[in-house]
Amino acid sequence: MSNIIFDSAISLDGYFAGINRSPLNPMGGVSEKIHSWMFQQKAFWDYLGVENNKNDGPDGALIRETIDRTGAYIMGKRMFEEGELAWPEDLYKADVFVLTHEKRKPWKQHGSTTFYFINDGVESALEKAKQSAEGKDIRIQGGANTIQQFLNAGLVDEFFIHIAPVFLGKGIRLFEGIDHSLYTLKILEVIPSELTTHIRYELLKR
């Protein structure tokens, strides 16, 4: 049975992305600051199909585990637009359901990634993702607003947060406007590393 999950890096002061986001400035230019732990892992570059001389630590094992358990992705239009021109072919290796008002035919890439453009809301995207995932988990990829929509709809089962030891001071907060009455949070796992702290939470609906 599929779980609905997300897996996101944030700064120590809670920011998921910076300001002035655009396809030419993905995530507002903060990716290097909050994702530096990921870029040091062999698992990340292997996933991209890039030759590398990195080694995996506990961070790499976590990357591999999250990839392996994910059967489909959901993302917002803004995240898709920021990545469309920059992402390598077949990045996701699964179906990706993009929440958008734009009418567009599916974009099938070489390999196993197909982007589907969903015009009728989160519930519709989730139902289609469940069918595609075939029992694996569904990952809400982002951005922050899309994750917030799923949280406020009571649809998230579990999430990983990777807290980078940096202050951004401004930007887009991941948990802005969350309905705190919906869930009780339970810490399932804490994994320390040199560049971040990984915390896995289970969300128990009240």
From TrEMBL:
Coiled coil: none annotated. One of its GO terms (biological process) is riboflavin biosynthetic process. Residues 4-182 form the Bacterial bifunctional deaminase-reductase C-terminal domain. It comes from the Bacteria. GO terms for molecular function: 5-amino-6-(5-phosphoribosylamino)uracil reductase activity. Transmembrane segments: none annotated. Pfam families: RibD_C. InterPro entries: DHFR-like_dom_sf, RibDG_C, Riboflavin_Biosynth_HTPR. It comes from Sphingobacterium humi. This is Dihydrofolate reductase.
